[in-house]
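Hi support team,

I submitted a single chain yesterday and got back a structure, but I'm not sure I'm reading the token output correctly. Could someone confirm the output below corresponds to the sequence I sent? I've pasted both exactly as they appear in my results page.

Thanks,
R.
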Amino acid sequence: MAEITAALVKDLREKTGVGMMDCKAALAATNGDMEAAIDWLRAKGLAKAAKKSTRVAAEGLVGVSVKGTTGAVVEVNSETDFVARNEKFQAMVAEISKLAVAAEGSTEKLKVMPYPGTAHSVETFVAEMVATIGENMTVRRTASLSVKKGVIGSYVHNQAAPGMGKIGVLVALESEGNAEKLAEFGRLLAMHIAATNPVALTLDSIPKDVLARESAVLEEKNAGKPANVMEKIVASGLKTYAKENCLLEQPYVHDGAKSVTQAAAEVGNAAGGAVTITGYVRYQLGDGIEKAEDDFAAEVAKMSGTEQK
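Hi R., thanks for writing in. Yes, this is the structure output for that exact sequence:
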């Protein structure tokens, strides 16, 4: 039997776009014959899926799942919103969301986990769905949050089915207070995060490049001021930026008279245990994916043969 080397597996993957484990299985089944392995993958419907893998998948669903004191959010993309409304696709996202809780925020770990009720990994099952439905699909990303004591609040915006929609939010509340009161606040706070899209939890946790950019803007606006004055202007400006963009400093959307920190303190008093907001995750469908802009009129004209020369 031919030796199935890592280089051979890599070569097959580059030729087909199929996952490493499936490429290895194909080569093992065909005694290392590259062309036969490609045909083997095609017969399984995987190479067909790979041909679609270059198409931009920016639609789909964000799924959220919470189990005990751990929650996960996952983005599964499709090419069109039509497929995102497909019951089979939604059922797949629901299962992947549940698995994501145990994936601990690792997309690669999630992809190789066994898909329930099958002998396939998540990645392979998704590839089979691509072949069946006829659109490119990807498990794009996942993240998780957990607390030792307290609750994970969650919210899904533009919900297409239970636990999945266009925006998914998790927020971690550490507390020994009443779980029911904490859960109610957790959901409201997750809604706040969906609406305001904070940059970070606190000013200290804002990425350095973002702070540098904001500081540069303030300095440019106030060019020519003495150094000591400029220092105060920048500090004041960053404080204002924090109130607008850092979760703990933002005005609470459900009661603008108080900040999120003040709202959490009030809930802690009512729940019988101080509340510490330790983190949050906000996924918006397609965020950061570059989509080609379709010229619908030009496409219709091309199909009808009336396009201008």
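A quick pointer for reading it: The chain has a mean pLDDT of 88. Let us know if anything else looks off.

Best,
Support desk
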